[in-house]
Amino acid sequence: MDPKTIICRCSDITLEEVRQAISDGYTTFDEIKRVLRTGMGSCQGRTCMPLILREISVMTGIPQEDLNPGRKRPPVNAVSLGAIAEGEDHDYES
Amino acid sequence: MKHIEILIVGGGPAGLCAAISAAQSGAKVMLVERHDHLGGQLIKQTHMFFGSEKQYAGTRGIDISTILTDEIANSENIEVLNNATVLAIYEDGVITLEQNHKYIKVKPERVIIATGASEKSLAFPNNDMPGIYGAGAVQTLMNIHGVKPGHNVLMVGAGNIGLIVSYQLMQAGVNVKAILDASPKIGGYLVHASKIRRMGIPILTRHTVLKADGKDSLEHATVVELDERWQPIPGSEKEFDVDVMCVSVGLSPLSELLFQAGCEMKMVREFGGYVPLRTEHLRTTNPQIYIAGDVGGIEEASSAMVEGHLAGLAAAKSIGYEHPEFERVYVDYNEQLEALRAGHAGDHIRAGMSKALIKEASC
Q: Which of A72, B241, B280, B296 has the most crowded CB, counting CB atoms within 10 A?
């Protein structure tokens, strides 16, 4: 098996797949997220985001300072739906 | 929903000091930490600190954590929530957190974000192979759990973390084969680098990882020299027989909550990633939100502690709790910070600050 360069550990997405997506015209972090799921796993992009933004910058020639890092939606960490559903009862009281 | 005066997110060096100074000013503080213990990265730091006496120079990181944690335990104004993760900051100022599978909502008057940073990773073939760790994981295994990560290590990154962890590995009887760094110069302090070189460990600047190999886990790593344009030089490959690769290529601020809070953010290379614009009082463009420590730019634990104190004092003052000796301590902490950032070692911090600092009036 060919050695893979993993960019997104949560969804096992490789450097090759990221580069393919960029050359297919998906040139923002959020677009790549929607086609490859990078940034949607348990680390929420903390591992892959810097690597993906660097690839976008190299391939498009746009400096990293000018790239959009994408929307950072709540929650920033995994939480069970059950916990949210019961949340009404857990408003913090001292 | 409970009314909270100051919510502090993160119980590392910055968050602990922010809690202490805000509480000393008279504010009621809630300190939220996702682990079961306070201290953050300090508890992995078995080495003695540099800096001046005011930042506990000569004391080991883990002992600094104990000093600060004891002070927190003795404060009536601080409530600590362990095993609690802040999940989101919403437009109306409501903050949600989870503690032991309970979903909790709070609405604080001020928030100090002290979430720290996460480790950057490196892209090379087989980079997901067992045996390849971040430096934080190696420190956790060795210094918290007393577990040897392996026998022969290749350290990637010659910043202070890479150098210190290499030294600790050697102390633990683990063989460090070499330390690499892609840049032409060693990033960490020369005193650490010299200590390591005297032990016979080569530090290869302008080198990077080409690939990792092994059957079920890491057995070999191939490295390559880089030219002035950071491109691999053909024929310069070297192979190392290692069962551990420790990746220590920098940190990135954990700033998602600040994005959610609507703070104006900027990618600042010198700070390791996206950081909020901030005033000299560590207030972001969201007037309720302050920052302290690595989330505002990657630096050292010493400056994180000083920033924590400053943010704690400033956030408390903004809601009417002025520290009894505000002027004196505030000036003193600012002078400490200036001293920590002085000289050549602070060049990149001062450069980063010139991009991220805004005038108080503009927010």
A: B296
Per domain, the residue ranges of chain A are 6-90
Through-space distance between the first and last CA atoms of chain A, rounded to whole angstroms: 57
Is residue A94 very low, low, confident or very high in pLDDT (cuts 50, 70, 90)? very low
B2 with A84: Cβ contact below 8 A: no
**What does the pLDDT look like over B184-222, one tens digit per residue?**
999 988 899 999 999 999 999 999 999 999 999 999 999
Q: Is the peptide bond before A75 cis (omega within 30 degrees of 0)?
A: yes
Q: Which of A49, A58, A77 to mutate to test the interface with B (most CBs of B within 10 A)?
A: A77
CATH homologous superfamily of B122-247: FAD/NAD(P)-binding domain (3.50.50.60)
Measured CA to CA in angstroms, residue A40 lies from A21, A59, A77, A85 at distances of 16, 23, 11, 22
Residue B150: in which H helix or E strand, if any?
none
C-alpha to C-alpha distance for B351 and B262, rounded to whole angstroms = 24
CB B271 within 8 A of CB B296: yes
Q: Does the domain at residues B2-118+251-362 carry the CATH identifier 3.50.50.60?
A: yes
Three-state secondary structure call for residue B99: strand
Nearest by Cα to B208 from B245, B171, B252, B176: B245
Q: Compute the average pLDDT of residues B8-13.
A: 98
User: Within 10 Å of residue B100's Cβ, how many Cβ atoms?
Assistant: 9
Distance CA B148, CA B305 (A): 30
Q: Is the dihedral of CA A88, A94, B4, B6 positive or negative?
A: negative
Fold of A6-90: Arc Repressor Mutant, subunit A (1.10.10)
Q: What is residue B86's DSSP assignment?
A: E
Any residues with CB less than 8 A from the CB of B282 and at least 6 apart, and which? B290, B291, B292, B296, B307, B310, B311, B314
Structure pTM?
A: 0.95
Mean pLDDT confidence for B25-38 = 97
Nearby residues of B235 by Cβ (< 8 Å), 6 or more positions away: none
Residue B45 phi, psi dihedral angles, 5° rounding: -95, 95
User: Could you write out the three-class secondary structure of B119-131?
Assistant: ECCCCCCCCCCCC
Q: What is the three-class DSSP state of B351? A: helix
Where do the CATH 3.50.50.60 domains begin and end in chain B? Answer: 2-118+251-362, 122-247
Q: Residues of chain B whose C-beta is under 8 A from some C-beta in A?
A: 1-2, 4, 34, 79, 85-90, 96, 98, 101-106, 118, 120-121, 123-128, 211-213, 252, 254, 256-257, 259-260, 265-267, 269, 273-274
